[in-house]
Amino acid sequence: MLNLPVEFKEKYQRLLGDSQAKAFFDALNKENKKAFRINTLKPNQVSYDLSKKVPEISNAYYGEVNGQDPEWVSGTVYSQDPSAMFPAFIANVKEGDHVLDLCAAPGGKSTALAEKLNGSGVLVANEISSGRAKALRENIERWGVKNAVITNESPANLSPHFTQYFDEILVDAPCSGEGMFRKNPEAIKYWSQDYVLTCQERQKEILTEAVKMLKPNGQLIYSTCTFSPEEDEEIVSWLVETYNMKIVPIELASDKISHGKNEWGSVSGLDHTLRFWPQDGLGEGQFAAILQMPDGKIAKVKKQKIKKGDRSTRRLTKNDQKLVEKVLDKFNLNFDWTAAVVRNDHVFLPAIDKDLKGLKIVNNGLELGIMKKNRFEPSHQLVEVLGELPQEDVIDLENQDNYLSYLHGETVRVDSKKLKGFVLVSFKGLIFSFGKAANGTLKNFYPKGLRILKK
């Protein structure tokens, strides 16, 4: 039984009435629902039960994913709360768009946005926390995304570089976390009405920078994982009143999805926003809205002097190209690597060629690998991209013991003696790593930071 604050219970009894409030509080004391999405960028080869679908989302199912499963390690599935899938799902992203996920970690929404882009356009995934930005990179990399720029910045530092640049911006704003109470009871300890109002001010600060980066007629997807009207309907009202934005209706048919309340804000059209209540039975608490910028230049941006481009980045030399080709020519590719550049020996295909000097860039596009003395060593990100297409130079580990040994970082013995050099490593047909084969031995190239303890 959750120990809900008295002030919290009184607030929602006042907002919902005694009957609805009781259903709400009762639902908070029930078990939370787990779900996963299947990666549409990769072959949909999973061993999970797919009989219980998440409403509306074709590639989402209820069920639990283990972090050691080959489906997870290969980036074939992403474990995500079902309600949290909807902000990216409702985004009107088209192939070729410029998209920003401003508060992106751990990456569930970014991976879904990347699927909609389908390798075209660009996704900027930003996270202000350096620790969480690392997890964001791992998840985007695992998903096989090659057109993302991952930044570790405050919105205020990001906006001068991307003034009116994006077609869609998703802001899953930091909030009071009421929607996570049953999933993470520790969040209850931090709750107070003062904290709700503090979060509201922080959300306004973030959104003030976000609108500077949105194109005229561009769309802002705003979401939170809280029930608080101060952070939901009131924020949407503030966006409409401050920036003359328009609330875009969202057409979803499921009876497990509720709508925002006009009486909880100060503008009309709030009933076109979405609310996810635990008593509706879909997932955890969530709020989502789409707002459209008016035509014409709206945001006033203080111009900042941006430094010149980074001279440490260079094109591949002829010798570099030979070394890269020697490794890559055996694989089936869905990109042209010849336009790659080198920076600090890292070979990559940039997702953005505009000047990013002055920003903390965690990753820009597809890292192909590292140039070492007279050789080229391919990257783990490249593996996850190659897993999107059928490949021939693959060694399957065949049994659970070999698979867990490989995840642990061990060299394993394999039957194949025909393949030599860098090969792709799979388990149950799902590609997840590079290895180096020689005389029946498979040298381990699974990244040290991803390795797990062998049971």
Automatic annotation (TrEMBL):
Keyword Nucleotidyltransferase: no
SAM-dependent MTase RsmB/NOP-type domain boundaries: 1-294
Highest rank taxon of the organism: Bacteria
Residues at which S-adenosyl-L-methionine binds: C103, A104, A105, P106, G107, G108, K109, E127, D172
Keyword S-adenosyl-L-methionine (UniProt): yes
InterPro entries per UniProt: Methyltr_RsmF_N, MeTrfase_RsmB-F_NOP2_cat, MeTrfase_RsmB-F_NOP2_dom, Nol1_Nop2_Fmu_2, RCMT, RsmF_methylt_CI, SAM-dependent_MTases_sf
Active site, renumbered: C225
Keyword line: Cytoplasm, Methyltransferase, RNA-binding, S-adenosyl-L-methionine, Transferase
Family to which this protein belongs: Belongs to the class I-like SAM-binding methyltransferase superfamily. RsmB/NOP family.
Protein name, UniProt field: tRNA and rRNA cytosine-C5-methylase
Source lineage: Bacteria, Bacillati, Bacillota, Bacilli, Lactobacillales
